[in-house]
Structure formats: structure tokens, C-alpha cells
Amino acid sequence: MFAELVSRFTVVLDILLVALVIYGLFYLIQGTRAVQLLRGIFFVVFLAVLASSIFQLNAFSWLIRNSIPALLVAIPVVFQPELRRALERLGRPGMFLSRRNVSASQVAHTVARAASDLAAQRFGALIVLEGATGLQDFVDTGVALDAQLSSDLLHAIFFKNAALHDGAVIVRDDRIVAATCMLPLSENPTIGRDLGTRHRAALGITEGTDAIAVVVSEETGTISVAHNGRLVRRLDEGELNRLLRRLYHPTPNGNRWLRRNGAERK
Question: What is the pTM assigned to this prediction?
Fold first, then answer.
């Protein structure tokens, strides 16, 4: 009887350890684009194993069994930057503290107020609101700030003579995590020639992620919003505020999800 209980406990412990390792892996790489790719890999492997077991696909089962070892070797190679950052995060203080609730309306109001002030003075700006897809890869290209989001701080960052005015500011929840961040430029051939580097960077980051990018043109002083690879242009403060409230929805645990916007407005 005792031996049977020990055996059952060992099986349960074994399963819990495997689950803990998988959960820990996802927890460490959260905030990066690798998490979506890794989820996709696990999902495909699970479906393949399930299908081969149900339908008795011998040749396919052989292929899966021989591919998994190669996949386990490839994952650390492909995700080497993410894994390095994940290990670095272990030493950061407060890593395991829960994130507080964030007011979407307050974030929208602050960004809209700052964009309006910057547009009035013809100061170019690029503000990116992180969505469910992590932007840590791009955060690492800039200067870390981790400061409370405020219109005054955004104005100070994008002041023409400020040291941090070039590049993008990335906002996570209600905090500015980094400035002078480098973003990928959109290669969409249909983009108008009147759009500059900031607008192309805003479209580029929203084509590959669910982020929202707010752009203030230095030449014209117009305000635009990019989301889902589309651009909404010539917004005033009120329109920008309402649009951001519709798009940006923090959840109680601090994660974000974004609803799709309508068609592009010229």
C-alpha cells in the first residue's frame, strides 16, 4: 500500500514538474515576440502527436519522433536573445510582483494631451502603446526609463534639442519603459510618398504586432494613429482620445488586448 502511494505521488510530482518547467519558460519570455512563436510550435506538435495516435499514422509518427530532438536543439539557437534576456530578468528586483490595474482612459487622455501639445509646437513624436504582443526586443534597442507616463515627460522627451527625441517611446501599461527605440520600417509599396520615417516606423511596428502607434508630424503638425498596419490621419486631441479609448484595453492583471480598428481614414 505504501509503495503504491509513493508511486502515485511520484507520477503526480513528475507531471507537476513538467508543467512547472513549461509555465516557467513562458513566464520568462513573456514580453517578447518569441512567446507567440513558441506557443505555435507546441500547438502544432500537440496536434501532430494527437493525429498520429488517433489515426495510427506510422510513417508520420516516425517523422514526429525523429523531429522532436532536432526541434529541442533548434529552440535554444533560435531564441538565444530571448533566453539570455529571460535569465537576466531573474535577477531584477520585483520581477514576481503582480502588476497593478491600469486605467485605459487615463492613458488615452495623457497620450492625446501630449500629442496635441507636441503638434501645436511642431515637435515630431512617435509613441507606441504595447499590446498583448511583447515589444521587449524593441525596448532593448533604446534607453531604459521605467517612468510614470505623463504628458510633461513626453513633451520633455520629444523636445527638439532633447537627447532622447529621436526614435520611439514605448509605453507599457501606464509607464514609459524606454525612449529612442528603433522600430522596423514598413515595406508596404502602397504607402504614400508624403509619409516620412516616423509614419513608416509606426506602420512597421503595427504590421507585425498588435501595438498602437501615435505619430506627430514635425513638418505639418498633424497627428496620426497606426494600428493593424493601417493609418488614421489628421486627428485632433478629442478624436485621438476617443480612438485610443476604443483601441486600448488593459485587463485587471496588466495584460492588454486590442480590438481592430475600422478602415484607414485619409
Answer: 0.64
